[in-house]
Structure formats: structure tokens, C-alpha cells
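new request in #modeling-help
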Amino acid sequence: MKTILGIEGLFKDFSGLEVLFDLNLEIYEGERHAIIGPNGSGKTTLFNIITGLYRPSRGKIFLFDKNITGWSSHRIARSGLSRSFQIINNFPKMTVYWNVRSAVVSRFNRRFNWTTILDWDKEIERECDRVIDLLSLSDVRDVPASELSYGKQRHLELALTIAREPILIMLDEPTAGLNSEETRNAVQLIRQLTEGKTLFMVEHDMDVVFNLADRITVLNYGRILATGAPDVIRMNEQVKKAYLGRK
Amino acid sequence: MNRLPVRQLSWGALGLAVLFILPRFLPEIRIHLMTEIFIFALFAVSFNLMFGYAGQLPFGLAALFGVGAYGTALVFNHFPGIPLLAALLIAALSGAVAAAFIGFFCVRLSGPYFSLSTLAFQMFLYAVALKWRSVTNGDDGMGVVRPDLHLPALGSISMRSIHNMYYLTLIVVTIGILACYLFLKTPLGNSVVTVREKEIRASFLGYNVFLIKLLAFSASGVLAGLAGGLFVLYEEFVATTSLDMNMAMTPVLMTVIGGSGHFLGPVLGAVFYLMLQDWISSLTSYWMLLMGGMFIVVVLYFQGGLISLLKLDWIWRLRNRGNR
Amino acid sequence: MGERLRETVTGKGMLMGFPIEIYAIQMLHGLVYGMLLFLVASGLTLVFGMMGVLNLAHAAFYMVGAYFAYTITRYTGSFWWSLLICPLIVGALGILIERFLLRKTYKGGHLGQLLLTFGLFFIMGELIRLIWGTAPLSVPAPQILAGDVSVSGMTYPIYRLFILGFSLLVLLGMSLVLTRTRIGIIIRAAVSDPDMVGALGTNVPIVFMGVFGGGAALAAVAGVIATPFLTTYLGMGDAALLDCFVVIVVGGFGSLFGAFIASLMIGELQSFGILWIPRLALIFQFLLMAVVLIIRPTGLFGEKE
């Protein structure tokens, strides 16, 4: 079982406010791993540290056996890791097509290309349309992102995340704010998009978690309570007390 | 998506043709004015590359204009045989290098701090130009003699007459502005706008925000430096006025009044500014105040600038996507 | 500034070609200039910390104060009238500008504010040029404060000591207001959270107007007391603007204490810079700014954005 993402002895405090304590975790290749926990347990902070937004106060992070602790976010993003945001984070005034294209340009490593005209690049155009189709955004291809419905914006958020063809996909509450039908569709979509890839996601919706996840990690007040298969977690007394019991 | 924007190209070609024929019908003094307009159009476009497209306000852009100007003057005075075009190339390159240097310190700062720190660098350069009399001759400035332009096919063209200067400027500026337009159409130009739109999202998509902002500023520097070089050639003189607060304000005024949301907005702004200056400054010494007042009015009430007021943008479809 | 240095020397020793006493005098010079700078920069920092507006026109308030001082002193024959009246005039001007111009740009974000304040700086400079002309003007120090005083064998202008003392007084007053009075507490609360303060019933717009006007008045005070010391000339706004930026960059955006330390540092740097490399003293400021920009872009005491 190859480890894609390794977290060793991770601590994080913000000017004295301690948020994460001694986290040790391994995400295996090809698995779908969910991290759950009450609000404020530090899940998004963990995501932010892994993706390079913050530096850990202590500890190391390994991506494909490379120590990526302290790497800048763009470097980490280019190493095969991609994330989505809990609060919609797209390019609001750009159309859906331009949004996706910015991601695709990055995937093809053409960010610094100054010798070709972007609009004339057929390869990029084809790839953009492929991603847009995949995420059912074809009907809003030329609509500015800020004018999309919430559900479509979530799709766009997903599109931006997978357009780089990452190996490790990190989704931060991908079903936040969706109704039950939209959530069901989202789960389908996520399952489809992460086929053959590794998924690491934060989720609150227990149905989604038990539906999708191969393994679950429970975070409580910045500490890992337990990691394991869904059934094991369901039975775990500590977890029940801390989290599931309150549901 | 059309391969070639035929409509815009034809309008552009028509415009250029008109500009080529114009000198035949204008008195010399107007030809001087047109040449000046070309130069500042380029300067304003370089400013808008940062303002309208990269989303940053480089108050100190005149530093790069000044570097280009002084660089060219120094090159002409110390290496008299140098070809004209080589000197212009040096102006552009020195603008780029200076921009890369200044940008290295300032680009990491956001918004107002970027703006002010570029201004600080400009004022520093101003002080250097003022005090280093042995090299720059301080505020007395240095004169420059326009060398002949040697072209392999056409031989030696004297630049003494304003007519030839007009054509040279028109061609160089057109190339510069076209280059800027094309730059914005490349993936790198797209990266600049992407970073402007949402830095965080861009960086999570793999964009090196610092480097891209630095490159955008350097591109601005190339054009500003080139404009500075042309300015020296035109004026046949360079002084600390190429680097002062007035020169810093000029592209800002032109771009804002012309309209930063459109690629040609700054060009319109340059035309408006210089024509107004030509007309009114002979009538009253308050014309700068008038300009400043108009600037404030535009900033508060007409953010789209003249070009949106005149509704020209629908003709051109060159609108800067995603601007204010 | 460096002209009257090498006067009476008691020969206690030399350092880098200058006698030791010179250093004491230079330090005093630096302190004086630093305090003056802080008077100007503090208004800017307060306004920024409170309103999130980096007011480029601030240095123009300094300049306006100086020019008005010239006129008022000439017509009333007394420097002290200027000291009283100029801050009031400029403060009122500040209030008008905030109420009728600046307020319109709050919604639009930084770019609009930057452009507006830059435009105002420019316009005010032009107005000054048109009204007072391009020639530098000088205002003589009031009789009581003219002349020198003896400091350990060297003479030192009384007026500079006055600047030092007066600035300290003003700053003390300012910190007392901020920490002890109700207004001060409201202001400080509004700096951290304008919305909350508004929700609690305080009229935030009035507080904004007041702080802006107060900052302008402070800058004017600096302008007034600076005139007998430095000449009044058209470039003084630019120079003040530049110095303020360097203070803000070095001291940290929004930190009053940082601005204080940075002002003193820059004052001393200028003073010694003029001593060692008279023509390019500015380079020290720039090196300092460049170094701070690389090591700590948010300034020595600034908060992370």
C-alpha cells in the first residue's frame, strides 16, 4: 500500500493559539479518505497547511515521499496535489470557460508562454471543453462565474480542482450548501472523478462520508481521535461520544 | 471564435493610414503635438498594462520612463556612433531591467503599498538624477542630438526634421502598442489577468504569483522605457522632469480619464490630455488644476473613463474582461 | 542641516574624520527631524489604522500648513497665531475632503481611494504653486526662540529644541487622548472594528471625519513648526510624502509605535547620512526600506495583512 500523503508529528499554533496537536496520518494511494470532526476541530487548517498556505509550527508533510513542508502553494499544486475550497473560490468575473482555461493552461505548463496566442490554441480549447462537459457546465460555458447558480458554482469549483489532472484530490466540504438531490449527484460525480485517483476530503454530511469513504479519520479539538474503516469508526466509543453522538 | 479580428484590423489599418497621411495637412507645430501624443500613448498603455490588466497601480512608473530617457541620452552622448534603433532597444531593455529590480522589492506588497513603494523608488532615482551632476547634469539636463537613422534598404535618413521623427515615432509606438496587445493574448498575458482576478486561487492552480507579477511589471517597464527613449529623441533633451512627480501623475491622469477598462482607453486619454494641454495652457495657467479636477470627477463618478462615456468600446470589442 | 556642525570643538577625539561632539549634535538633529517626521506620519498611520485608507494627500496637508504659516505670520506678524490657526484651517479642510470626496470611495476598494488621494495631493500642490508661486519662502523663528543655547561647549539653536519639546508635548497629548479619554477609546475601538462600534450606537462617520481632520491638523502643526527650521518650498510635499512612506514601510502599516521608532531611525539616518555622504544621504533611507521590504515586508512592527 503506497503512501501518497504522509503527515508526521504535525503541530500548528497561531501566535499562541494552539490548533493542531501531534497529527500523524497516512493517505494511501487510490483510497478515498474522509476527515470528519466538529466545527473548529482544525480540518480546514490542516488542509491549508498541507496545501502550503500555512507553515506548520512543527512536523513534516510528505507528498510521494518528497518532503513538501514549507513549500509554496504553487509548487505543491504543480506536484500533483489539487484542492477545492469550502467557500466558493473561483474567478468571479471570468466566464466558466476562462476559469477552466486558466487551470488547463497551468496543467499544460504554459503559464509563462509568451509566443503563442491563447485563443488560437486548439489543444487547450478541446481540453477545456472536455472538462466543462464532464462537469455538466456546457450550458453555462460563457456565463461569468459570479452569475452562476450555487450548484453550478460548486461544479465549477470541482472543475478547477480536477482540471490539472492531479493525483491527490483534496476537497473541502464539497457538498456544503447543496440540497439532498444535488448532494446525491455530487457524490456520483465525485466518485466518477476520483476513479483511479486518491481523494482526501473534509465532510460534515455523514451520508456522503459513509457512502464514499474507504477510510475515515476523526479530528477533535485538533487531535486525531481515530483512523480506520467506516464500520470501525462507527463503533468507536470515543468517536461516538465526541461527535457522532451529538448528531 | 474568429481566427483574426478582421473588423478591428481594418479599423486599425484605416487609422494608421490616416495618421500616415496627416503630416501633409498639418502645420509643423501640430506634427510636434502628434509625435508627443504617440509617445505618451505608449507610456499610458504601459501604465494600463499594470493598472487595468495586472490590477496594480504603479505610481512610480515614471521611474522606468526616466531610466529609458536617461539611458538613451547617456548612450548617445557617450557612444556617438551608436545606431538609432540600438539605442531605442537599450531604452527598452534598461526599462525592463530597472522594472525587474524595483519590482523585486515592491511586487511582493499588495495594493497601496506596491503603489507607494514604486513611487519611493522613483523619487530616489529623481534625487540621484538631481544630485549626480557629473553624470546627469542635474536639473539643467542634457541635450541630445538626433542621429541619422541607418536602414539597409533606404540608406541614411536624417532625423532632424520633425516629419521623419513623426514617422519613426508612429512606427515604433504602433509596434509597441501592438506588442502589448499581443502579449495580453498569450498564455502569459492570461496568467497576468488570472493572478489579478484571484491571487489565492491562481496560486493553488500552480501559478507563481510573485514571478508573474514581476514579469508583468517588467513588460510595463519595457514599454515605459521605450517611451522614455523616444521622448528624449523627440525633445532632444532630458532633465529631471522625466522623473518627477508630474511625470508620475501623467500616465495616471491619462489612463484614468481615458478609461482603464479598455485596451485603447489610455490612448484616448493621452490624446485628450495633450490636446487639452495644447489648447488651454496658452489660455490660462490653471489648466493643470482643471485636469486634476476632471481626474477627481472621473474617479468618483465615471470610473469607466471617456471611452465608456463615448461608448466606443462596443465597436472595438477589445474590452478588458473582468475589470471593475 | 549640516552647515553649522564643525564649529567650536573641544577636541576630545575623532571618529571617521569628525570630532566626537559632532555626533552628539547630529543625534540631536536626527531626533528633531525624527520627531517632526513622526508628527506627520502619525496622522497618516492613525487614518490608515482606523479607516484602512492610505491617504496620499496627507503630505499635502503638511505643505499647506507650512504655506499658510508663511502667510499668516506675515500678516499678523506673529508666529504663534499661525500655530493656532493653521491646524484649524487644515483640519477643517481635512474634514471637508473626507465628508464630500473620500467617503464616496470607501465602497470601491483601495484603487479608488489611492487614485483620489493621489489626485488630491497633486491638486493641492498645484493650488499652492498657483497661489504662492514657485520661489521658496522663509518664515523667521519667533524672537523668543531665535538664537542659540550652549550645550557642553557647543552651541545649539534654541528653535530646534523647541521643535523637539513641542512635538513631544503634542505626542504626549495625543497618546493621552487616545488612552484616557472617551473619544480616544472610541477611536481605538473603531480602528479594530468599525462595524461593531457602529452597532453600539457610535456615529462612525463622524468619528471618521474627526480622525481624518485630526490627522490633517497634526500634519499642519508639523508644517507650521517646520517652516522656520526648513525652508518652505514646492518640493517639500514630495519630500514629506517620501519620508512618510519610508516610515510606514519600515515601521509597519498601522502601527503607531512602529511609526515612532521608524521616524527616529530615519531622522538619525538622514542626519548622519548628511554628515558622511552629504549629496546622497537618501541612500541610507532606501537601503533601510529595501532591507525591510525583503526581510519583513509588513514592517518592523506591522501586523500581517
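bot summary: Residues 20-51 of chain C form the longest helix (32 residues).
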